[in-house]
Design goal:
By secondary structure, the protein is mostly helical. The protein has one domain. The chain contains nine helices and no strands. The longest helix has 19 residues. It is globular. The protein starts with 11 loop residues before the first helix and ends with a helix.
Length: 179
């Protein structure tokens, strides 16, 4: 419904560009979770599924399942006290989830665009003992990775919502920097 104010236009190629951005942001953090949980393939599987979609593969239930599996890995690593690994796994889950970004004009969708970048930045912050400068550097890299298509899609949504702790703050900072 192009005249529906609750939706935005969102083409398949744009969805692939957003997913490619999410993959580029999440991939560097994989080493964190793989070091903490070397036998757990779920985060890498999620990034690989997202990468395949971004490269032209069909968007499938397997991609969605990979996203959920990475989020379960994030929960398990968090429960084990591995906070940096948890955020790294969460970044992977958001990368695969980006393939399912909804064309709904709601602020919560911004996290689907920027969540992988924010969680990866937080993972590296935590790995560095909570150093916010490390997170800021990773957000700067994410800004560089954002193509004009990603920025255009992001601008169709309202600004990122309040809340969400440190990751929410990182989402809002990146959102503001890209707009």
């Amino acid at each position: 419904m192009p005249d529906d104010p609750t939706t935005i236009p969102l083409g398949h190629d744009e969805l692939r560009a957003v997913t490619a951005f999410a993959v580029a942001c999440a991939r560097p953090a994989l080493e964190i979770v793989e070091h903490a949980r070397p036998g757990d393939p779920r985060p890498r599987d999620a990034v690989d599924a997202a990468h395949a979609f971004a490269g032209g593969a069909d968007r499938t239930r397997a991609t969605r399942d990979a996203a959920w599996a990475a989020h379960r890995a994030a929960q398990e690593t968090r429960d084990a006290g591995l906070a940096a690994a948890s955020d790294a796994a969460r970044a992977a889950g958001h990368a695969a989830g980006a393939a399912f970004l909804h064309p709904l004009a709601t602020a919560t969708q911004v996290r689907h665009v920027l969540g992988s970048a924010a969680h990866a930045a937080r993972a590296f912050e935590l790995l560095a003992g909570g150093d916010a400068d490390v997170g800021a550097r990773h957000l700067a890299l994410a800004r560089e990775r954002a193509s004009p298509v990603v920025v255009d899609v992001l601008r169709r949504y309202p600004p990122a919502p309040a809340g969400g702790g440190r990751v929410g703050e990182l989402v809002r900072r990146l959102d503001a920097a890209l707009r």
